[in-house]
Amino acid sequence: MHVMMVAFPMQGHVTPLLELAQVLAKHDIRITFVNTEMIHDRVVSSSGEMTPVGFVSVADGLESWERYVPGKLTEAVYTVVPAKIEALIREINANSNEEEDKIRCLVYDQSIGSLQQVALNAAIPSVAFLPAAAALLVLGINIPDLLRDGIIDDQGNPLKSDPVQFAPTMPIMNPKDFVWCSVKNTTIQKQILHAMRQNNKLINSADWVICNSAQDLEPGAFTLAPHIVPVGPLLASNRLANSAGSFFKQDSDSLEWLDQQPSSSVIYLSFGSYAMLDKAQFQELALGLEHGNRPFLWVVRPDAVPGADNPRKFPEGFLERITGRGRIIGWANQQKVLSHPSVACFVSHCGWNSTLESVSNGVPMLCWPYYADQFINRSYICDIWRVGLQLGNDGGGIVTFDEIKEKIDGLLGDDELKERALKLKEMMGSSVREGGSSYQNLMNFITWIQECKK
Ligand code: UDP
User: Fold this and answer.
1) Of the four listed, 36, 274, 283, 342, which is most buried by Cβ atoms within 10 Å?
2) Is any atom of ligand 1 closer than 6 Å to the C-beta of 131?
3) Closest Cα to atom 17, ligand 1: which residue?
4) Average pLDDT over residues 351-361
5) Of 354, 344, 351, 348, which is closest to residue 422 (Cα–Cα)?
């Protein structure tokens, strides 16, 4: 059985799809995993040896500099990549002498909904994979109602400020934080709104819509969108595999450093692959950690602060003062860090993968969303599951070092919250263990894929 999988070229999309690929490969399903050329080499060099997955790259038609123009990459992925994928399937199938070498199924990131048409053209079954919360799709499904009720205008701009909640166990969303609004760039705002509306229609004809989430995490969303099948958290069901496809080089000494710290003592901070802090906020955070007097492990990507002039500008003397207590790295093996017993809490931008990795390990979170679906995820963490606290307020303005320090103290002193985080960890563990709902869904899905060849 030969399946093609196509990822959206962002870290948070590639990682979970590659984890699904590894699970399928373990069930003797041959995988051709397609990346765009921009990320291909980085994904292959960090995962090539770990997995039996075969990697292929396709061009996105962009010059290197164009990829940094807001909206260009997304547009290319929506418009250029599908034709390349269609040609690739045709080529593989035309050159395959054996039936088993032909591509028999297309699994694609649901944000590239136009790949559904590619599967229809190639007359092969298709699977839309959602690497985010099911709540995100529910939001997309409800866009016509939001327009009808005058909550947003036809450009997606918020017209009302009352919070929106589609079901009691779903996130409470402020219209100004809807995924498309939070990107704060009108070109991308329009792109996302348009894609979400289109994708709803397109993926309706997919054979499966699967989601890296669990029934118990989002019961309301799965009731409102019963066609979405939760198979996650994939990382937990796939613990024996390494987290693959890292775009950046992982620091190799953090785990040893964590071994030397007391149990449940370390604050881990990471804002994923894209979120940034402006220079003043970055310095305030550094001071909050310094004054907090606790050990910390802080991921500061080289591009963590916008601007080219010495972006990782720490306060004067900061690095000397925190020596021995604080460790600053460029990129972590986050899944391993979060499962380390020395980690006490996670200061996070609330990307969905980071969220799943944290709740699967029972690690309480301090939530500092930046854009896109991160506000939805924050509401799940703070309002619905109640395993984290919100940092800052949504009105903007700088979060002071005092507030940062106090919030961390508050989080670590909240025993009931920590108790809930451990219960959620148990729940996640049971959903991916044999007999659990995600486990069963995943097995049904794998059986279906194995039968696609008939
Ligand atoms: N990640 C990592 N090392 C880091 C920071 C992040 O391996 O230092 C991984 C993290 O484990 C997660 C992914 O990068 O799987 C980030 O995805 P997420 O959805 O949390 O955020 P995004 O990067 O899409 O904003």
Assistant:
1) 36
2) no
3) 12
4) 97
5) 344
Q: Is the CB of 15 under 6 A from ligand 1?
A: yes
Detail the DSSP E strand segments found in 288-354. Answer: 296-299, 326-329, 343-348
C-alpha of residue 11 to centroid of ligand 1, in Å = 7
The Cα–Cα gap between 43 and 32 comes to 13
Residue 414: count of CB within 10 angstroms of its CB: 17
User: Which numbered atom of ligand 1 lies nearest the CA of 338?
Assistant: 11
Q: Is the CB of 357 under 6 A from ligand 1?
A: yes
Most ligand 1 atoms within 8 A of CB, residue of 14, 211, 296, 353 to mutate: 353
Cα of 5 vs centre of ligand 1, distance in Å, is 20
Q: What confidence score (pLDDT) does residue 244 get?
A: 76
Q: What is the pLDDT, as a whole number, of residue 309?
A: 65
> What is the pTM (predicted TM-score) of this model?
0.96
What is the CB neighbour count within 10 angstroms for residue 183?
18
CA dihedral over 339, 371, 407, 290, signed as positive or negative? positive
Rg of the chain over CA atoms, in angstroms? 22
Predicted local confidence at residue 308, as pLDDT: 64
Any atom of ligand 1 within 6 Å of the Cβ of 335: yes
Digit-coded pLDDT (tens) for 214-267: 999 999 999 999 999 999 999 755 554 566 788 999 998 999 999 999 999 999
pLDDT tens, residue by residue, 266-297: 999 999 999 888 889 999 999 999 999 999 99
CB of 332 closer than 6 A to ligand 1? yes
Question: Is 24:52 a contact under the CB 8 Å cutoff?
Answer: no
Q: Is the CB of 353 inside a 6 Å radius of any atom of ligand 1?
A: yes
Query: For the complex shown, is ipTM > 0.90?
Result: yes
Confidence grade of residue 395 (pLDDT, cut at 50, 70, 90): low
* 382-412 per-residue burial string, b: 16 or more CB within 10 A, e: under 16: bebbbbbbbbbeeeeeebebeebbebbeebb
Q: How far is CA 48 from the centre of its chain?
A: 21
> What angle do helix axes 186-203 and 115-122 make, rounded to 10 degrees?
30
Q: For residue 292, which of 334, 321, 253, 257 has the smallest C-alpha distance?
A: 321
CA angle 426, 19, 225 (to 5 degrees): 65
* pLDDT given for residue 48 in this prediction: 60
